[in-house]
């Protein structure tokens, strides 16, 4: 009995919602995100669709969008940026049959059609060797290649070749490298329905492929071809994801190996640097020890010089004190000598005054006697006194007074001596004359 078309369409919608939710989540989980409510709800603000498309195309949106949109124009603007981003990175505008407003208005049919288009374009169409085939033909070709050699599997189309579940069991066994199931034993022991149910359970457990199709409907040939195709394509997605992860792992291992090699070389260089630094450190330590020793020697020398300086300063202070005392004594002696000299000078001046007066009086007396002795001589002319005034001598300097008085005294003495000799001659002549008269 054929299924009701409306029921079949509703079932197809549910299959798509489950399948595409799973597919979208495999990308969003890379940013610790997932579909929270439903595809139409989460895609309506433009934020989730932007993150999904960035991950799908492995590129970043270079335009600013609102991360917390509330009003409809902003929701539409965010979604419009997402669709424009898709056009700018590999998708022709003709394939986009949904508008930004349709996302915001949560039109489920258009959204599922959009995701189905993306899935075919960016996942199924990437099957190697199927460039000149349709997505379905390429997917069938991939299924044949994966299940090649498995007993009971003969893939011709999606309508009849998957109704016993063996193709999917073979894919699970291939994916898990025969570590989970024993395919040949299951083929012999299980019924067709058991094989289908086992395939669904194992696929969901080990490949993450959600259960989309009713096992009985599949066995009886009532399952929608589109559902079978979509469900099978999720196996391809799981395989490709595994290969991408293995490729990424190999790339990471290669990068790790390269970095490890580089790090090893850097470690060797670093070790050489450490050895050089260690050697330099030892040399610096030796220099430091020498500097410490030199510093100690200089410190000891400085302390000794400081001690000697202190002793010298003490000695100089003592000598200064002694010198000050000696200077004080000398000043006292000098003052005493000065007093004595002043006193002596005064005495000498008084003595000089007396001597000068006496010499002047003596000279005057000599002059008087000289006049007296010569007064009886007819030719006698009285001499002018040597001094008219004592002031003539007193006003002169001490040495000049002595020289002057000495010269005057000597002159007068000579004159007196001459006069006395003349008087003696005259006296002798007079005596002789008297004698002759007798």
Question: Layout of SSEs?
Answer:
Layout lengths: L4 H24 L10 H4 L4 H11 L14 H17 L11 H5 L3 H15 L12 H12 L19 H10 L7 H7 L2 H16 L7 H5 L5 H149 L17 H4 L3 H40 L1
Describe what this molecule looks like in 3D:
It is a single chain. This protein has 438 residues and is an all-alpha fold. The chain contains 14 helices and no strands. It has helices at 5-28, 39-42, 47-57, 72-88, 100-104, 108-122, 135-146, 166-175, 183-189, 192-207, 215-219, 225-373, 391-394, 398-437. The radius of gyration is 73 Å and the shape is rod-shaped. The mean pLDDT is 85.
Class from secondary-structure proportions = mainly alpha
The outline comes out as: rod-shaped
List low-pLDDT spans.
none
Number of helices: 14
Average pLDDT for all residues: 85
Order of helices and strands: HHHHHHHHHHHHHH
Question: Biggest sheet: strands, sense, closure?
Answer: none
Distance between the termini: 233 Å
Number of strands: 0
Percent helix, as a range, is over 70%
Oligomer: single chain
Strand content: under 5%
**Radius of gyration, taken over Cα atoms and rounded to an integer in Å:** 73 Å
